[in-house]
Design a protein that fits this description.
Elements: E1 2-9, E2 15-22, H1 25-34, E3 38-44, H2 46-53, H3 62-77, H4 82-92, H5 96-110, H6 115-119, H7 128-140, H8 143-199, H9 207-221, H10 223-242, H11 244-256, H12 260-281, H13 286-294, H14 300-314, H15 320-326, H16 331-343, H17 346-412
Antiparallel strand pairs: 1-2, 1-3
Length: 413
């Protein structure tokens, strides 16, 4: 959670300024709009940016946080004080950045600060979900249970990410291998054939061969132009994604793109269900839980649907109606949430939904991997085959001309 400075206009047209904590700019904007303000500007405070950039180098992995939560829970459950537990955890963690953060958090807690408040100063390491569960555990006096749920959630999230990465590893390796082969052939082999064609006096080459020779010349002599073009394109896409409209366009494309769109949607639904269920079972109020969830689903379109549901719940509606109207949540999810809400077991139902969609993600990944592998091999074969055919077409034509010329000369003698 980061701190933002905002400028708004109230219903009378007067300008107001202030600061507030929120997961993202969009969440804070919607929160201010719900309060009846017209948002003029929102910027992250310089202190928050410095804090996010600080606390050492490197990054804290999910695995490090899961181990931290599991060990912290065990020590708190055993009756070890917070300061002493943090001291031990700081000494035994292997991640240098996490070690520095734990030491600083320990000093804050020792000075009388609450654990959740001390952790909130490191938003790049501890997410809103993390802080919300810790805060709920502190208020309810069940910090060890909150830490156990956190470690379970992080382990599940880590398992889901690992499956996605494992499924994409082989395709990425094959694509990289194909690109390297094509670059090697066009850089070292094609120029030699082009020189041979020149020596043979060939002025006009077949279309395929000419295209390949032109591409080879571009790679060999104008590689820096390609590099600059790719870099500029990357910066342009990054700049577009940093805008509000750009983020929405990219998030909508992620949901609509063939094959991968459904996979992304299922991952977002699994994350929504797992996160909301974990927050509710920990005692976090549903309005606060939904705001936290909207910042963790990983897609702005679904995030907007969650925040719309939150706004409707504030007005007294049930959660399933706005989710159904958003069309981002399948009927099965809406009906299960409705049943869970009626029976008072919404957290249990959300956990079942998360288990189902995590299984769906795994099944989709397996099917996708099985389908992609032969396609990539065919793609690699076509790329190499195109180069081979393009290089030998002029040679075959030259041999045919020589044979035809030789045969005509023998008949005349």
């Amino acid at each position: 959670m980061a701190t933002y400075a905002y400028t708004v206009r109230d219903s009378s047209g007067q300008t107001r300024t202030g600061t507030s904590e929120a997961e993202t700019v969009d969440i804070l904007r919607r929160r201010l709009q719900e309060q009846g303000f017209t948002v003029a500007d929102i910027k992250q405070t310089s202190a928050a940016r410095k804090k996010q950039a600080g606390a050492g180098w490197g990054r804290v992995k999910l695995n490090d946080l899961a181990i931290f939560c599991r060990q912290f829970s065990t020590m708190v459950d055993a009756g070890v004080g917070l300061v002493r537990a943090l001291d031990v955890l700081g000494e035994q963690t292997s991640n240098p950045k996490l070690r520095r953060i734990i030491v600083e958090v320990q000093q804050e807690v020792e000075a009388g600060q609450s654990l959740s408040k001390a952790l909130s100063k490191y938003p790049k390491t501890f997410s809103t979900l993390f802080l919300g569960l810790i805060r709920a555990g502190e208020v309810g006096g069940v910090l060890e249970e909150a830490l156990q749920r956190l470690s379970f959630f992080l382990e599940k999230d880590m398992e889901l990410r690992r499956k996605v990465k494992a499924a994409l590893t082989y395709p990425v390796i094959v694509v990289c291998f194909a690109v390297l082969i094509v670059l090697a052939l066009t850089t070292f082999i094609v120029p030699k054939f082009a020189a041979l064609f020149h020596d043979l006096g060939m002025k006009e080459l077949p279309t395929m061969t000419q295209m390949l020779v032109d591409f080879s010349n571009l790679v060999k002599t104008g590689w820096w132009k390609l590099a600059i073009g790719i870099f500029v394109l990357y910066l342009a896409i990054k700049a577009f994604k940093s805008t509000r409209v750009g983020r929405r366009v990219v998030d909508r494309v992620k949901l609509k793109v063939p094959v991968f769109g459904k996979l992304h949607h299922k991952i977002a639904l699994a994350r929504f269900s797992r996160t909301l269920g974990t927050l509710l079972v920990s005692g976090v109020p549903i309005l606060q839980a939904l705001e936290t969830v909207s910042g963790t689903v990983g897609n702005g379109i679904i995030s907007d649907a969650v925040m719309e549901a939150r706004a409707r719940i504030r007005e007294g509606d049930r959660i399933n109606d706005p989710l159904e109207k958003s069309r981002m949540f399948p009927p099965m999810v809406v009906h299960m949430i409705s049943i869970g809400e009626e029976s008072g077991a919404l957290d249990t139902m959300l956990s079942k939904i998360a288990d189902f969609y995590e299984g769906e993600v795994e099944s989709t990944l397996q099917s996708l991997t099985s389908a992609i592998e032969p396609l990539l091999i065919v793609f690699l074969g076509l790329a190499v085959g195109f180069i081979v055919i393009a290089m030998f077409m002029p040679l075959i034509a030259a041999v045919a001309n020589l044979s035809g010329g030789g045969g005509g000369g023998g008949g005349g003698g």
